[in-house]
Amino acid sequence: MKPIRTFYVKPRLPTGLERLSDLAYNLRWAWDPQARSLFRRLDDDLWERSGHNPVYMLGAFEQTRLEEAARDPAFVAHYTRCCRDLDDYMQEPATWFRATAEGSEGLQVAYFSAEFGITGCLPGYSGGLGVLAGEHLKSASDLDLPMVGVGLLYQRGYFRQYLNADGWQQEGYAECDFHTMPVRPVADAAGAPLRIDVEMAGRQVTAQVWYAQVGRIQLYLLDTNIPGNPPFDRDITDELYGGDGEMRLRQEMLLGIGGMRALGALGIRPMVCHMNEGHTAFLALERVRSLMREAGIDFGQAREAVAVGNVFTTHTPVAAGNDFFAPDLVERYFGTFYRELGLDRDSFLGLGRQDPKDRREEFCMTTLALRLSRHNNAVSRLHERVARRMWASLWPGAPVDEVPIGHVTNGVHIESWISHDMGDLFDAYVGPRWRDQPGDPSAWTRVPRIPAEEMWRIHERRRERMVHFVRRRLHRQLENRGVSSAEREVAREVLDPGALTIGWARRFAAYKRGDLLLHDLDRLQRLIQDAERPVQLIFAGKAHPKDEQGKEVIRTLIHTCRRPAFRPHIVFLEDYDLDIARFLVQGCDVWLNTPRRPLEASGTSGMKAAANGVLHASVLDGWWEEAYQPDLGWAIGRGEEYGDSEYVLQDQIESQALYDLLEKEIVPLFYERDDKGVPRGWVARMASAMEAFNGHFASHRMVREYGERLYIPAGRRTRDMADEGYRRAKALAAWKTRVRQAWPRVTVAGVEIVDGPPPGGYGAAPPEVLVGDQLRVRSRVQLGQLAPDDVLVELYIGRVNAGGEIVEAGTVAMESAGDADGAVLFETTAEPCRRSGLHGYTVRVRPRHADLVDQWEMGLVCWADGAVQVRAAAAG
Asked: How confident is the model over 322-347, as pLDDT tens digits?
């Protein structure tokens, strides 16, 4: 029987403790140990049973317990201190953004993501992407960056993992009760729940807007499970990444289009929108549609005004990780929408195709995001190179190393992951800057001053705590599986609190190779059963529900764990979450990462472990490719990359390399102790790694970099484009149309060396110059209807490899030097030759305009090699 009316029962907080609600609803407690300890103090068991949910706790307490707390002077003092700390934090006048805000007046950033991992009691995340989004908001809050988050509020979140008797992953879901979670509904001006509509396949879908307070940042979340929506629409926000392709499209429409409409209903007009992965890309279309209607401008003009304010981050280095939708499905859902943009079907679908003219190609969200953003980045230095290769076809004719995708290496929110006892050690020896300015490398220079005995004692305590946690979790998962009491009791004895402990915890995808250490079980058994120098392993992670290969890796691992020789020493923890992650990254000795290079975009779990002094052993992929130093951790292999057909060979080679590292370096260093039982060489490496990594791989550094390099410049360009009735946006759109029409007549008619050696080629011996000599080069360029100011003519010069290609190239802009025979002359002098060997040069022409964010933006280029032109696609 359904109710005819509903009402919400709030906890009755005693006089003097009224602000417990403020503390519970502001998720700053997720990275404030004092606030967490306050709620633990009320009831530690309930804190654990609630999944660390203070809102649920306040509603679950007996009233007498709260009244007892109100009469406890020690609790009241703790409570008062937490309230004062929160107020000081929220009102802090001297923040990073306020100190660097000059030129960013009016900046408002909206950060869109399909998932946010802030705390375990708000289960809207599946793994690293969502946790990174949560870290982004936390650091934006700490830095006081003017930002709001936008996402979806999932009724059942991501799946809960459990294993059957054979070790095969099963998926279950738990219903979320939003009224006992740290989220609140947003009210409209009349006090009613704020709702927005999105048309989907000819009917209106309504979503309610909720918000979570993340320190100084508000995170807005959309929920379609509301009365008035039919069941098919109520299910849109049921599961994270649940359902089929059509459900995914509907979720992404709600996130992008509905998210922008929610901000509009709230009176928030972001100058900059950050698209965290391609799931969010429809927001760019909604920004264009809204601006067209508001300013009375056309699609091309609105696109120019909007794209300069879009930032797009791609996270996946594998094609399968990007969303593709069938053209007919997109047509069904966007038929009305694209007509509002003034586009026809092919033009609209072309925005999401690498080849806009290929009607068979599916619509890709990453392609759409790259086309409608002028600021694109990968998440590590190596991932930048991978992303440029993946998406080079969107900028035809551009050398791969000039494809306009940069990188901002990921970081982690240090204060969220450092154990409280290690934090106390930092407070004592490093000083307060590690908390206030964790993204500044200079804040960590005192870490090596921490006495080795103290650091090791703290680390051993964390390992012991982790082992006890693992035993409890393992006992509970065996109990849930219905195994015998004798088998459950074995769980109470697994792992040795003093043994070298290796952690591997992340998504179980085939390329991450969670089974790499299982390739030689005899060798593994010798390591594990060494009586004097034992090794033990902890694994955790989920496979995507549709990833049969990943599930098979888990099953193989479980069967290995059950062997008598391995049972006490290898553990798999089910249902990997933030709580498990926190214990592992604080308590393991070695953090293991084994992807097939270059398929790991970043790997932030390793950063969390390294922040705690857990030493890293990894393939040179993701963040480790730019962080690795021989005295700070270990590299598996030397950064080799193998073809698809060589995976078996690669796994064999790298598994043996890993065993060698363990046997010859890692295990001996760990067990080499002084007369006090301290492994001084190991501890010195822990301290050096924390000093070297914690500042560079902190999310404060990451968000600061986004702010300085992307958000603030994008905000200025957005403001400039909007001035004088979008005069510059209109002018740029008109200029692009003119250039595209004229481009087929642009050719490089000739190139010659002036005041230098005669030209040479591959049919004759090349001319010779000496190191330090300069070349003055002149080129004749036919521009047709274009003027010299419309183009950028460049000398492209570098070393020539064995394949006859210019590599390690540099460019020098050429200046207009008059007309000759219907062409325009351009000249320049190249930099002096620095190295001997075979070099080569050519000339290229690209469009140039003061309001182009990047000169590759239009995808037009004309090279001098036979005057071959590569023209932009129609949608580019």
From this structure: 999 999 999 999 999 999 999 999 99
Of 107, 717, 113, residue with least CA distance to 375: 717
Nearest to 207 by CA among 218, 217, 221: 221
First and final C-alpha spacing in the chain: 56
What whole-number distance in Å separates Cα of residue 262 and Cα of residue 256?
10
Query: Is there a single domain that holds both residue 25 and residue 129?
Result: no
In the chain, how many domains are there? 4
Where on the phi/psi map is residue 765: left (φ > 0), alpha (ψ -120 to 50), or beta? beta
The SS3 assignment for 465 reads helix
For residues 339 and 448, membership in a common domain is answered with no
Provide the CATH number for the domain around residue 795. 2.60.40
Higher pLDDT, 423 or 479: 423
For all residues of the chain together, what is the average pLDDT? 93
pLDDT tens digit string along 416-468? 999 999 999 999 999 999 999 999 999 999 999 999 999 999 999 999 999 99
Residues 6+ apart with CB under 8 A from 253: 198, 200, 282, 333
Q: Which domain holds residue 86?
A: 20-91
Mean local confidence (pLDDT), 145-150: 98
Question: What is the secondary structure of 256-323 as a DSSP string?
Answer: IIIHHHHHHHTT---SEEEEESGGGTHHHHHHHHHHHHHHT--HHHHHHHHHTTEEEE---SSGGGS-
Instruction: Answer whether 0.90 is exceeded by the pTM.
Output: yes
Q: Evaluate whether residue 2 is within a structural domain.
A: no
Amino acid at 239: E
